[in-house]
Amino acid sequence: MVERAFVDNSVALQIGAFTGPVAQGEAALARALQRCSGMAIAFRPDLGAAFAPDESGLGLRQVDLASLPIKTAGALAALQAAGVDFDFILDMQDRRAKRMAPNDEVTPPVFAFNRLQGDGRRILMPLPIYHDFGTGHFVDAVRPDAVAWADKVPRVVWRGITGGRAALDADGLVEGMRIKMALRRLREGRMTEAQVREVLAACPRWGLLERLRDDPRFDLGFVDGDGYVIAQTPLHAHLERPRMPQAEMQRFRYVAVLRGLDVGSSFYWVMHSGSLGLVMETPFETFASGHFRPGEAYLPFRLDGSDLAARLDWAEAHPAEVQAMVAQAAQISALLLRADLRAEILRRVVAQVAALPRVQE
């Protein structure tokens, strides 16, 4: 009974508010691609072919399937295995916040790994690599019973790269400059150090680490990755910490999840870690994040981190409630470990979309 409810809820979460009808044909696909990332492709199962925008941006050009990025290729293979028989868009880029179409416009199905909550145009599916089994990123990377709760250190831990953008509003939807761009302009002499510090201070990860760097209850730090070598990166040295494997992080009672461009990539393994996830709020969702409810499976905190210390105080004062959240997160994660359920869910998502009325263009 639990499994059936989980599958039903998963299908509903991934499809979200997409109710059709679905647009089909070259014109509809070309129009939709204009509103997607440069990573997006259109796929026509009847031709077995993938397409990208042509030079004019108004039509389509066929692309070599062998040249697709690994995330796109993996997602496409999963959809084909699920029996997809309709034209669709596949966009596995980060931060899918751009509006797909006016409310009255019929669009093709758009599969993505993230979307804004309430977005009725995108259908969620797992992100290859980060949501795959055996990669060290998903729930199977850890065991919740690896460290007994009584043996866990009452501190908050986080390790990650320094990437992201400045957030210019409370939800992080109004984008500022990318950190990489600001640092490059600093090296080129096109920005001053003071200007770059303003960009860094508005980046959620950076701002949080600066805020709590002297609090002994928090062990938060940047590590090398994604082109960043901290020792060679201006202004970063004081926030660098030694790299820490997941098994070591499980020794901590609390593990923070900090969003990057949209969500925190560590979210799923933290939910299965046997520690309490302290999760930075985000308006974005991924294929199974909706199963984990804030206050029931983890503790949320604001984008600017201003309430994180208070959240930790509450958690330390309420051990029974915290352990109940950890148990709830582990129970949900155990269902996400089921490869058979994941395959069934995607088949049902595809079948439900396939059953919607189609409009040929």
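^ that was protein a. below is b, sequence first then the tokens
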Amino acid sequence: MNLRAIYFAPLVSLPTHVVAYLKMKKNFQNTKGFTLIELLLYVTLTAAMLIAITVFISLFLEVRVKNQVIAEVEQQGLQVMHQITQTVRNAQSVTSPTVGSSGATLTMNVVTSGDDPTVFDLSSGAIRIKEGTAPAIDLTSSRIIASALNFQNLSRTDTPGVVRVNFTLTHFNAEGRQEYEFEKTFYTSASLQENE
């Protein structure tokens, strides 16, 4: 007989449900779970990733809004410059400002009598055009504030006439947010066409 087998033989046989419980307990003790430190580490890493993603999305949206603001200011500035330039080129004469002077209003005699005189001016932060007896029309939107509108008559004797125009457009920023801050000054010159 083997002494080893006798020595290790159980004196009392355990019921099967107790044996099953002991095996389950042994397996449970061998199974590794998350410790508190590991759980805190995972939560911290997840929070850091979420914060980084949120900051990235926020910056992306701010840049997008800033680009839209810049585009709107530049588009309206170019549109106003084009309108003034075309009107000056098609005008018969510049009434105001007089030769060699400058002013905040440009008055011109134009070919179409119903549009005579045509006046460009600045009122309540908007650049306007008034043709004949019609009411003045804003050339800039309510989201754009116009300022420093100046017309300089650079005409000389025996020339058809030249007008230099400059103005500043600023995007309206009621909330004071940085992405809505943009200002640009526009310059252009236009010559009257020679009347034949």
